[in-house]
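Exercise 7. Predict the structure of Phosphate-starvation-inducible protein PsiE from Lysinibacillus odysseyi 34hs-1 = NBRC 100172.
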Amino acid sequence: MAKQAKEGHITEGRLEEGLRIRNELFIELIAQVLHEQLVIERPILHERMANLVDLSNYDDELKDTLYALINKL
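Solution. The predicted structure, encoded as tokens:
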């Protein structure tokens, strides 16, 4: 069972940047899934994307925005 993705809130000043990064993470994750020929469910997708954000060097405000955007997928 996938762990619950972190909650966050969208900071208006970081929305564009957050959307761009979320899209890049999504494409990266989908490429990995296709390469591994996996089937991925929504909760797993949220968890794996949140894990990528956790490992990133983004500041806390941007990470919070990214978590909120990931949960909107």
